[in-house]
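User: Hello, can you help with two protein structures?

Assistant: Certainly.
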Amino acid sequence: MTATFVYDGDCGFCTRSAEFAQRRVPTAATIVPWQRADLTALGLTVAEVDEAVQWVAPGQPVRSGPAAIAELLRSSGRRWRWLGGLLARRPVLSLAWPAYRLIARNRHRMPGGTAACVLPSAERGGSTSPAA
């Protein structure tokens, strides 16, 4: 199993950010919306993925929010690895969490954001198993 980065596929801002990562951040990790992921196999819950992006890698604890983003960046080539290392450092990560929460609360207002970004996951029709 390779590492998996899980994001909210119902959120336009999150999807655009994940698409940017897929194009620009070379990584062996799978980048997948939670609505198409097998959350049970990843050891995640809908509540966890609805709250923040997640990083799941074999032999590592699950990382959430900016810590997950840091791991995604650290898994990439030299161009991004340094930024992930910086983000993972305690003083930076401590400051990143409030910024992450602010962006998450306002993601419907961000570029690419949609009205679906503000709805609770139950109202967006997400599932915990892969799409058929």
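That covers the first. Now for the second protein you mentioned:
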Amino acid sequence: MTDRTGWDGLRERRMAEPGAMDAYDATRRAFELGTTVRTMREQRGWTQTRLAEAAGMTQSALARFEAGGTVPTLALLERIAHAFHAQLVVRFDETTPAA
């Protein structure tokens, strides 16, 4: 008989591995940044091609970024902000350590 585990058990084991939470948080941030850019682009009625050209990148690279598949550099975020005639704001927020 094989030892089978459901998704919840697998996820629990994987998240307990060293570095898993940091990787999860980085992926979440990349996804949130991509979603924000996609929302701003759609609000302006722009295509991915139009934004990509304005930001000096390819449409496929923008599509990957908007889907959360890549972690953008600050330089890329600045180019996208410039294309939108927006200001990039980066800040640090204090966090409360877990008890």
